[in-house]
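Exercise 7. Given the components listed, write out the predicted structure of the assembled complex. Treat all entries as one system.
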Amino acid sequence: MSDIQAEQSVSFVRKEMTPEKPAPSSIRGPVHWMKESLFSSVSNTLLTLLGVYLIYLLVPPLIQFAFVDAVWEGTNREACVDTHGACWAYVKAYFPQFVYGRYPVEEYWRVNIVFLVGALGLVPALIPALPFKRENILFMVLVYPVMTFKLLTGVSLSFETWIAEFVIAVAILLGIGAVTAYATKSPIKPLMIIIGVIALGFAAILAVMSIDFGLMPVETAKWGGFLVTLVIAITGIAASLPLGIAFALGRRSKMPAVRLVSVFFIEFWRGVPLITVLFMSSVVLPLFLPEGVTFDKLLRALIGVALFSAAYMAEVVRGGLQAIPKGQYEGADALGLTFWQSTGLIIMPQALKLVIPGIVNTFIGLFKDTTLVLIIGLFDLLGQVQLSFTDPNWSTPSTSHTGYLFAASIFWIFCFSMSRYSIFMENRLHTGHKR
Amino acid sequence: MAANSHQAGDGSSAKGSIFNDPKVRGYIYQIVLVGGLVYLVWNIVQNTAHNLEKQNIASGFGFLDNTAGFLPNQSLIDLSATSTYAEALLAGLLNTLLIAVIGIFFATIVGFVMGIARLSNNWVISKMATVYIEIVRNIPLLLQLFFWYFAVLRTVPHPKQSLDFGGGFFLNNRGFFMPKPEFGEGSALILYALIAAVLGVIIMYRWAKKRQMATGQRFPVFLTGLGMLIGLPLVAYFVAGMPITYDLPALKGFNFAGGMKVIPEFVGLLLALTIYTGAFIAEIVRAGILAVSHGQTEASYALGVKPSHTLRLIIIPQAMRVIIPPLTSQYLNLTKNSSLAVAIAYPDIVSVGGTVLNQTGQAIEIIGIWMLVYLSLSLITSMIMNWYNRSIALVER
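Answer.
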């Protein structure tokens, strides 16, 4: 290169770059920007004026309501009755109910620990740069749910019959495994180990569940507010992902019976509104159970929500599976991988990566849909807000507006951050499949 | 580890093992699955029969013939004090269909306007559309429904201080009142004129298309069609001697009498569904338009096609192919979401069914009816939209 440059040292070749000149004044600056994007034509100008007028109609009154005329301090309706603005004093007074529902005040610390540990466990798991991802996720999947259950309910389960049945089931499983291993002389020892570990883990969880830590039992009928919103949303999310993956695989299975069952399951749940599912779980599910067996109302709602969102998740995952080129399957087969190996190591990671936006969309939908439980008499955040309007102590003209504004902001912050995080992950993970 | 064991297993002995035959394994899995399901269903049926018997609830649909002790406050069919549960449920079903069809109509308009607005060159307009979409999509529909119904419609003035929109349109906390047309003698002629106009537009459309194919000349189909649709019935109206009169609502005592009344529950539900679904449709429309390669726009401009024609004749038709499938899901969602009506007691099928359930205790039958209704609605909507999708799909090879 340097040789060529040396040869070109003739006089008519420029030796240095001309300094950059600023763009002509007609195509830069705020004036030009306004000309281009606001007043480029008559119709555009009219649209701009219309838009500005709409903003004028909507924004100043909102600011006036939420901040200027708002009442921030007060102990009852006297404080807010004379203002046209938001009554934040009421939100302040009701804040504990909005977060905890009717959970006993002296037990709030249990809920707080659950929130705190949840946040501490979740945030590092969501930031890609931080280490110990696997340990973190194992903690969130195995330890955190058990801890949450113990802390929130305070119940120590007695497992006399359960334990007996469980021990028998494990014995049978291990027996079948051993016999099969012996009969076929096939080295399924790893499988035996896996079964053993799962059995031990399950037994450990049951053991912890049955320890009495001396916590006061709090029945779920007393739970409410944001606590219920989070419990339903997170359980639904946690249950729907594995269930959804299972049904998506089932729908693409070569076994006709498996495929048919999956298709019926998915199409049925997707075809009906969540409200009817919730009615079903609260009214009909008890009829399906044997006499004497009763489920908690919250648990019944959780089952309904989980099955419902599993069907949606299944379709999202199926979309991802369909987007994987056939060569990937053939490559896995050519390497001699079994179905579970190729699915778990090659197909699923790619498919799930492709459908992250869809999965997060389902999560957001689920988070918003938790509000529907108020129709079957569970009080989530919206339910508590709605309930607080009946309190004569705080009934002012602006109470309902304030309450809805508060609830809407909370839901908006959560849903909007989820969607932003999804965009962030999507950008981070786009390794090659995007042009 | 697993890979090692697999290789070793392929060695000598496992070759003939029936456990390693995928076919046999497949059969075993399926038998286990079907067996488990049959056992589960059998258990459920047994339990349910036992529980119902214990609670003295007769199963079956016989209760539908009993007289309903309540009347839905909006009904498209005539209900009387002797109406049966079946008639009440039918009224509920019709109310569901009504809100779904009108909601889909308005949500589509809002969605297309907002979706195109978000792509507008105009900074103010596109930012406004973005803010609308991002706010509305991230707030639960039930909250929005409560807001419109309890915080807005319930706080509008009493009938005496009704908001007067002029021309006989009034809004107060009893509902939205508007003039009701009354068809006098000779109105049939107007209907015939309208039918003739529709037929005329179809024939003209075909002829215009043929002519454009043959000669390349475009015919102003839209304006002519609009003229026919408005003009013909208008001519018939005057020929028949102006037979349509309006019954204007008027304040009588404490409430309005006469005219047509739309109950506030309907208005609230319609507002919530339209605004909520419109935001989702807007995103679908935007994605569809962005999916059309920019080269299409450039090529169209290079040929000297007007921007408005480019949008209408080149971009939108191609975008429709991307838009239709997700749009179908939004229509289905809107239909299913109309079941939130139960929260504000708009008498749709779920709300009416819930009342029937409370009165009779026939939970399984009522929920069965709900599921049947919604599953068939989903099926019909997707059939229509799939048919439309096929008719506009790109024909390849």
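Discussion: The two ends of chain A are 33 Å apart (CA to CA). The CA atoms of residues 357 and 422 of chain A lie 6 Å apart.
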